[in-house]
């Protein structure tokens, strides 16, 4: 039997509950499709930080390196640990350390879900750059606390970094409906975003079969609400992709439905799978978190591991579940009920 | 009769048409409420750039300084002049030169308009920082065109700049429903946005009557689609405000409805009024641009000039027009028809 070594980081808040749900579904999928998930769980979280002073041990990255994949629930508990500490201590370094430069986030309505838009038939794949750009962590503060304080944040875009995410996006577009929209803000950010536009045009030459559009981030935000059905693959920087994928989550019915794969395309390190939503301290521990995004992310992981049939079966089980009206409205079904329904559909 | 000296910059594309519309409505308002708009028109635009090599003359800013207000249609014609040139040569320098640090953008549905959302009863006032932050124009490119090229964009936030926009936002919140949401991304941008969060908490102490929320830009983008009715005043940085106001335009039915005032609160220079939409080269010259955003912006200008009754009358005329179904759907009424309907309603 094929065995995959999976590092599991449940994290904080509802991250823990939805990770449990996703792991249960993975076990059912394994039993059905003949593989085993050998899971090693790591307690790295804000609680861990309060105990040890770090979000993960000094050798955390080295520990993760040997795994076939990483599954992460959600990180953050702002009441006790500032997000700027918790995220920069765990989530963001993992994305960067393993060159998980392609963050893949699909946005479409599962059956039975009434989203906030009147529009329905959209199917968007957002490819977010995941390792540099506006979240490089560069910048500083001078004259802190004084009248003349200045804070800077430096967005850093490398040619290699921009080129590889664009190529990745073009490959995805080629495998889908053949259209790619590159999102920048080159009318107001004349260094980084003009550079990104140029790189888009350059890489596009290698993909004559893909039609390319340029759109500014503000116009794209409006587009996703006004006419999401016109969009196919979107490629965007770290920040812009972050914003657009929460918006994508919203139009697909909410954060409870938005899956995410942090992919290291050259497989020099493990990829990481996590729902788009956060730890949601306000609803933690109440058995009401929607595990659908987490389970969808697990399906992305199965696909990445080469278990395409299992991945498709999990997606079909999710769709069967929402089609029946389970998990489609906030609070109507518990986390456990939704998970059970997906497992039942999957074993059927 | 009171006379206001107005600098008019129609700009490019549909900017010209909607400016004409707004000026006609202003004349009707003046006749009714007893003031005169003495308009001086400036041809500064991409066409002007192609003729002269600059978007405006070297003394353009000095020329504008003496006016009571500036009205701008839209700037940009990317086919002939890169946006990074046209915007940095005209729109952005005006905002900065006259300390128009508060960009006020209201988002609500006019009567008769069916927006893209199922939700309807929202009334949001977005206050966008307008002079620094992510659009400071700082940054650079090294090793341009080479494998090791790096492009940077430096977001610069000054204490004075952040404090004044927050105070402005709190004043607005106090005059409305008493709630302010400060939008940052302090979980991933640990210098600039952590600073903004701290400043929010500091300024909030002076406004105990205003309730304050912090929200990340990604969550806010989702919120504006999922539950816009929960929002009152939003305060955001230059980039975040830019994105959220296009999104705001989308939920109010489209860019044709989104007004914008670039305010210099201390009145040390003229303020500038312009619709949120751009020059829309694809529909220029066809008499189909919706002038409602432009006319709404003119109403904001009247209010700023102290003509509150005239401003309210223009808004009432806009509402009467859309309530009748004129201008509510793209292409159904021409620019001229909508303008005529507003003028008729205003003179009635
Ligand atoms: C938690 C936060 C740092 C993270 C991000 O912005 O990358 C999250 O919003 C996401 O989209 O994965
Ligand atoms: C044209 C562009 C530079 C401008 C901006 O981003 O400020 C526009 O999008 C706006 O919102 O006024």
TrEMBL record, chains A, B:
Its cofactor is Mg(2+); K(+); Mn(2+). Belongs to the isocitrate and isopropylmalate dehydrogenases family. PROSITE patterns: IDH_IMDH (PS00470). The lineage of its organism: Bacteria, Pseudomonadati, Pseudomonadota, Alphaproteobacteria, Rhodobacterales. It comes from the Bacteria. Pathway: Carbohydrate acid metabolism; tartrate degradation; D-glycerate from L-tartrate: step 1/1; Carbohydrate acid metabolism; tartrate degradation; 2-hydroxy-3-oxosuccinate from L-tartrate: step 1/1; Carbohydrate acid metabolism; tartrate degradation; 2-hydroxy-3-oxosuccinate from meso-tartrate: step 1/1. It catalyses: (R)-malate + NAD(+) = pyruvate + CO2 + NADH; (2R,3R)-tartrate + NAD(+) = 2-hydroxy-3-oxosuccinate + NADH + H(+); (2R,3S)-tartrate + NAD(+) = 2-hydroxy-3-oxosuccinate + NADH + H(+); tartrate + NAD(+) = 2-hydroxy-3-oxosuccinate + NADH + H(+). Has multiple catalytic activities. Apart from catalyzing the oxidation of (+)-tartrate to oxaloglycolate, also converts meso-tartrate to D-glycerate and catalyzes the oxidative decarboxylation of D-malate to pyruvate. One of its GO terms (molecular function) is tartrate decarboxylase activity. The keyword Nucleotidyltransferase does not apply. Its EC number is 1.1.1.83, 1.1.1.93, 4.1.1.73. Keywords: Manganese, Metal-binding, NAD, Oxidoreductase. Gene3D superfamilies: Isopropylmalate Dehydrogenase (3.40.718.10). NCBIfam families: TTC. This is D-malate dehydrogenase [decarboxylating]. Residues 5-342 form the Isopropylmalate dehydrogenase-like domain.
